[in-house]
Amino acid sequence: MQSHRRHPFLARLCLLVLLLYLLPLSPALSRPTRLADGGNPYHYTLEQLQAALPQPVLDKHPQWITMYWDAWQILTKHILAGTPQNGFVSYYIDPAFNGDIFLWDTVFMSMFARYGRDLFPVTASFDNFYRKQDANGFIARQFKGISGLPYQGKNDPNSINPPILSWGEWEYYQLSGDSSRLKTVLPRLVKFYTWVKTHRTNSDGLYWNTGVGSGMDNSPEHTVCDTCFEPGQDWIDMSAQQALNALSISRIAQAVGNAQLASQFQQEYAHLKNLINQRMWSKQDGIYYPIKDGQQRPVKTIGSFWPLLAQLADINQVSRLIKEHLLNPNEFYREHPFASLAAADPHYNSSTGNYWNGGVWAPTNYMVEQGLKLYGEEDAAYQAALQDIDNVYRVYQRTGTLWENYAPDSASPGDPARPNFVGWSGNFAISELLEDVIGLRVDAPAHTINWRLNLTERNGITNLHFGQNVVSLVAEQRQNASDPPHLTVQALQPFTLKLSLPGGKTFTQTFAAGKWRWTPDSKELKDS
Predict the structure, then answer these.
(1) Closest by CA position to 93, among listed 44, 53, 107, 409
(2) In 3D, which of 317, 417, 327 has the Cα closest to residue 369?
(3) Is-cis flag, bond preceding 423, omega within 30?
(4) DSSP string covering 83-99, please?
(5) CATH architecture of residue range(s) 8-438
(6) Domain spans of the chain?
(7) Are 79 and 46 in contact (CB under 8 A)?
(8) Which pLDDT tens digit goes with each residue over 472-501?
């Protein structure tokens, strides 16, 4: 007996599932091979990882660096080999759940794994879904690890995950700079978008999903059950995710020189943006709500913040979303931000989070923090990431691992929650640390690194691979965050650094290949 993705009740039967999993299989079928030491080409030693991956520099937070490297080491144990029976690619990243692959897990795993793209099969993990795509464009949310078959057929209302594969491809491109892959996958992304538009829109043009399909199984965004199709219900997360899908496809088309397709999907995006803001934004409450039978349903879930990442909100809307809700300790900004459900909701579970009834999750935290930065709210993203990583580390210190989700009101694992979840919880230890705490944002196509220098301790990164370049950036300790830094910069190839400080000061400098010392305020640039 198999369970669908992330059902909190069936998850409690994990012992039974484990026993069933250990029963002998028919000789005609074989499980994906979890490769043992010696047979796993991805089972790198710590020394090999440290030689090849970005090395964060945090003189006053060595404990976070320990957790960073441990996350990478856990990932090495979660590489599976495809089989003739499942038809998957040779090697791919396992979501660390039950041996099956899931679309939105894979996209969010790529957000940290792309920093190790020379070591790990990141885009190959995307390719599993393209391999299994139907001729009509349908891509299932879940494929069975044993047979490679979709867990649900295309006519099942639970059959698709958030349609964010295009966003994953775009974000990977920001680090790789390789547009040739975009040309290959663009037609498949367009077909998937079209299938979703055809099969997941309501009569008002907004989108629906189910609890299971959305990935937020027991979230009260649904009103009946987590596997039920509910006629007349528009989902704010699904609608915003499809808008993000359109925006990402437009950007991809532009990057590969298809101006006509870029314009078409920019129009799709603009239409959805207008529709979502007209129908789903509550002027009274200052938040986006789902809709049931034409009326807004005042339920506040973490799904209400997908419009940040999709850049649907205007400045006034963003201000209200943040001040009244996201940073409100009576709603989402709990001891461990961000709760997946507002604390005032009657379904909210303070002690464990009960999965999506308050639990804190890597994918939605990553989504929120990236969305904040798109609106210039770097301070809010930074402070939330500090608190987030501190809570995750306290649990890591006590349990020795990373968990599927966390409790919102204490430094504890959630319940239910799986351990060793790298898996998408690698974002807590890796991408959040690099992007939100240290403050790096890479634009490989433009040969540019944006560095929002948040910390005053000696900090930075060495051995950062982007495009064909390898760069190291280290800022010496400062007294105050607004003080100009003294930087050591090393690059294999020329690149541009855009440096910003809390308070608004910005500096831009292009570096040739070599090693340099730079003090922005004095415009001093020395060959080191």
Answers:
(1) 107
(2) 327
(3) yes
(4) -TTT---SEEE--SSSS
(5) Alpha/alpha barrel (1.50)
(6) 8-438, 444-527
(7) no
(8) 999 999 999 988 899 999 999 999 999 999
